[in-house]
Design a protein that fits this description.
Layout: H1 5-14, H2 22-39, H3 45-49, H4 53-72, H5 92-99, H6 103-110, E1 114-120, H7 127-136, E2 140-143, H8 151-156, E3 160-163, E4 185-186, H9 187-192, H10 198-208, H11 214-218, H12 223-242, H13 245-261, E5 264-272, H14 290-304, E6 314-322, H15 327-343, E7 348-354, H16 363-380, E8 389-390, H17 403-409, E9 414-417, H18 425-433, E10 437-440, H19 442-447, H20 459-463, E11 469-471, H21 487-496, H22 501-514, H23 523-532, H24 539-561, H25 563-567
Parallel strand pairs: 1-5, 5-6, 6-7, 8-9, 9-10, 10-11
Antiparallel strand pairs: 2-3, 2-4
Helix pairs in contact: 4-24, 6-21, 13-14, 15-16, 21-22, 22-24
The structure holds inosine.
Catalytic activity: adenosine + H2O + H(+) = inosine + NH4(+)
Domain Adenosine deaminase: 225-523
Enzyme class: hydrolase
């Protein structure tokens, strides 16, 4: 607010100093220098300093557009309905539809995002498409350990799907108490007889059982364990449809296209290898995952050969097992991992344990089996480094929070989530020293109730201390993101955090390429490549160079397309 002449006159009479006074100016200069000095510690300080003129201009334009949208789109005005909650940084599920209409979205969508480093494969497929596949693929049957009768059954009772070459007996209904446990009913029959609206109702219900709704995510006061219970129930249902060869092939092909269109050129997927995989037309599941990897590789190669995939470098898999398993099952799973790695060395790039961190076994409890795995990998001469989830929790010094110590001590190359890392000053120094990247998943953390909005997220506490981070989408389909890719997560942090800016986003995209597991490397080679970055001589340096070229072109586009945003 500019004071009136009368106010100024009054202030001078009272002896109140003015902003123009030299000693106030001196204070302000000192203030600015302090901010600048602190900004030098930020994660993007080097990137910011070395940006081209065009990139600087693009940064400026993006910040102008962001500011305009903060007041025009994200502040409650007369145009919005009364019941709409709107403020800058509003929670993701509330903001989602509106964010997709903004100029900032258009810009972020086009940005070269580098690599996607933290994404659970089975939680990424467009669920409507997956359901269509289940209906269109011959032989898909539904079964359940007990008939589905009550409201509660529809909400939480288990059921699954599988391919079967034997046509089912049409007389039985899974919705009637006469249903015999586990007998197979073809999906068309089950849908047609669905008591709440036939096939349309069935499709809607099934989709609802494979994802978290906006409603689920609003109830932050119900806490983390409650949402994880719902979240965990989705995976067996999805997996039972997805991991049948023809369905998996068409879903993967489509998903790779979505990722490439979003500016992603490489993916390190994760999947929990606890699912049954069936080849096309085969009733019995495979006893190992070699066939799965054959098809995984085949579809990636086929995609790369299309026009759409011509710039896609590829994808690999971080093998994961469930952290709540007893040792025996974990060891069996590790053996399967090594068998698959020997058959498809180029497709498996790492190992991790997943599932709710608070409820599962802490890494400290898994140390003996993890050492066993290290020993066997060395004996078999296979390179399967650790990429652990750690600190995806709200604990402060509890055993889940302490997973961060073990992840680092066990030589993890990146940390999945690291949400609670901001409480550990010594570990922050260590991850910087050891060049460990944090795979941050801001929207996932919101939906799974660690932070209620981006404003409450721990990400800025890490970035301000110069920790290297990449942004990731974790489980886009199950979390209800509605679209695959990284645009939502990128948009969310750009709009929500003042200090981010295009240079912050770009630094995280550059990091994602730098920390990609493009090829098997010993720890020393991995470290050397990360440290030398674009100055190196290998595949990583080349891909980093390509990312810089893409980013420069993108900045040119921003400057051309949105020049008038800064003129008026
Ligand atoms: O954010 C996460 N943290 C830990 N585990 C997860 C997360 N998202 C998915 N999964 C786990 O990954 C498996 C599917 O591949 C599921 O078991 C799920 O619990």
């Amino acid at each position: 607010m500019t004071p009136s002449d009368k106010d100024i006159e009054w202030e001078l009479e009272e002896g109140i100093p003015q902003f123009e006074d030299p000693f106030i100016q001196k204070y302000l200069n000192g203030r600015e220098a302090l901010i600048e000095q602190e900004h030098k510690k930020r994660h993007d300080a080097t990137f910011y300093k070395s940006m081209s003129t065009v990139a600087q201009e693009a940064c400026h334009i993006v910040s102008v557009i962001r500011n305009k949208e903060l007041s025009q789109v994200w502040t409650k005005g007369e145009d919005w309905p009364d019941d709409e909650l709107l403020y800058p940084g509003v929670m993701f599920t509330v903001a989602r539809k509106r964010m997709e209409q903004t100029k900032l979205w258009k810009i972020v969508e086009r940005m070269p995002k580098g690599s996607l480093l933290h994404a659970h494969l089975d939680a990424m497929f467009d669920l409507d498409f997956l359901i269509d596949q289940a209906f269109e693929t011959p032989g898909i049957h539904m079964s359940a350990p007990a008939p589905l009768l009550t409201k509660q059954d529809f909400e939480i009772a288990p059921f699954s799907f599988q391919y079967s070459s034997t046509p089912s007996d049409d007389k039985e209904s899974i919705w009637a108490k006469e249903y015999q446990a586990s007998s197979l009913i073809n999906i068309q029959g089950a849908a047609a007889t669905f008591p709440n609206g036939g096939e349309d109702g069935f499709r809607k219900w099934l989709k609802g059982r494979m994802m978290l709704s906006a409603e689920h995510s609003y109830y932050h006061h119900h806490g983390v364990n409650a949402i994880w219970e719902i979240f965990q129930r989705t995976f067996p249902i999805i997996g039972s449809i997805l991991f049948y060869e023809p369905i998996f092939r068409s879903c993967l092909r489509r998903m790779l296209g979505e990722l490439a269109r979003d500016g992603i050129r490489y993916v390190d997927f994760r999947t929990a290898f606890v699912f049954e995989y069936r080849q096309q037309g085969v009733d019995t599941p495979e006893k190992d995952y070699i066939e799965f990897f054959r098809v995984f590789k085949d579809e990636i190669e086929k995609f790369k050969a299309t026009e759409e995939g011509s710039r896609f470098y590829g994808a690999r898999m971080i093998w994961t097992t469930l952290r709540f398993f007893p040792n025996k099952e974990i060891i069996e799973n590790m053996k399967q991992c090594i068998i698959a790695k020997q058959a498809y060395p180029d497709m498996i790039c790492g190992f991790d344990v997943v599932g709710q961190e608070d409820k599962g076994r802490p890494l400290a409890d898994l140390i003996p089996v993890l050492f066993w795995f290290r020993k066997v990998c060395a004996e078999e001469a296979v390179e399967i480094p650790f990429f652990f989830h750690a600190g995806e929790c709200l604990g402060d010094g509890d055993e889940t929070d302490e997973n961060l110590y073990d992840a680092i001590l066990l030589g993890t190359r990146r940390i999945g989530h690291g949400y609670s890392l901001f409480k550990h000053p010594l570990l922050i120094d260590l991850v910087k020293e050891k060049k460990i990247l944090i795979e941050c998943c801001p929207i996932s953390n919101e939906i799974l109730r660690l932070s209620s909005t981006i404003k409450h997220h721990s990400l800025p506490a890490l970035l301000s201390r110069g920790v290297s981070v990449s942004l990731n989408n974790d489980d886009p389909a199950v979390l209800g993101t509605g679209k695959n890719g990284l645009t939502h997560d990128f948009w969310q942090v750009l709009q929500g955090l003042e200090n981010m800016g295009l240079s912050g986003l770009a630094t995280m995209a550059e990091n994602s390429v730098r920390w990609s597991c493009f090829e098997d490397q010993k720890a020393t080679e991995w470290q050397a490549d990360i440290r030398s970055g674009i100055m190196g001589s290998g595949m990583k340096a080349k891909r980093l160079q390509e990312w810089y070229e893409d980013f420069e072109k993108f900045c040119q586009w921003v400057v051309l397309e949105f020049a008038d945003e800064v003129e008026d």
